[in-house]
Amino acid sequence: MRVAVAALLLTPAMAIIALGFVAPLIRLAILSFSSPAGPLAAYRELATVDVYRVVLRNTLVLALVVSVASLAIGFALSLALMRLEAGWRAIVFACVVLPLWISVLVRTFSWMLILERNGPLNRFLAALGIVDQPLPLLFAFPGVAIGMVHVLLPYAILPIYAALSRIDPALLRASGGLGASRVTTFRRVLLPLSARGLATAATFTFLLSLGFFVTPALLGGPSDTTISMLIDSFVNERLDWPLAAAASMTLLAMALAVIGLAGRFVPVSALSEVG
Fold first, then answer.
1. Which residues, 6+ apart, have CB-to-CB distance to 143 below 8 Å?
2. What residue ranges define each of the domains in the chain, with the CATH number in brackets?
3. Taking burial as the number of CB atoms within 10 A of a residue's CB, which of 15, 61, 106, 167 is the most buried?
């Protein structure tokens, strides 16, 4: 009886998932094999054309750089949060979460103003004497990486902070009391105990980086094209739906591969522990 009631309760949700997600995904997969040149023509073109291979490489490199930078900054901020008093911690947490309430498009346009050649960042660096000429940050890889790290940083901080907050401070004090240096305590105690949070943060940031569109499209140049931008070009400029579908399925396969790899180190249930 309980199984029947549970099945009835789950039926509306399963129907929505089937009609709103599974069915379009199946349709997209079928479309990727519908090229007039043959079922595998779209995938063959993606694999053999140099430009498309470069775009794939750019997407992976960008996602890796953004993930590493987000993890490094997120870990440092999470450690700082752990050492702050409750009042200051709430203020800093608000600063971390507040950008999530602002449109990514608005934040990206703000970075365009900050990173331009005569923008405040270049003027600040020139005033300090660090640079003689404005740095080419806008419409280049550095600008894309900076903008994406800013957008994805909360997704790195939250799981890392959640992992650090579960570590018993007595373990760190015991390590220091036994004569371990701060570096040794960090390497032998703090880092291993926070590994699950780091892995969860890395998974989130890398997956989100793979499908990013707005920030690379506005802050990047022609050499910073990503797979999502390529799909947009296939649909809106070339009107090549099979090739767009094949690129979409390739992006999906990459995301599933990352999830499968992360699942070997991080239990799926850990991904729900971010909050």
1. 111, 115, 137, 219, 220
2. 1-32 (no CATH), 41-273 (1.10.3720.10)
3. 167
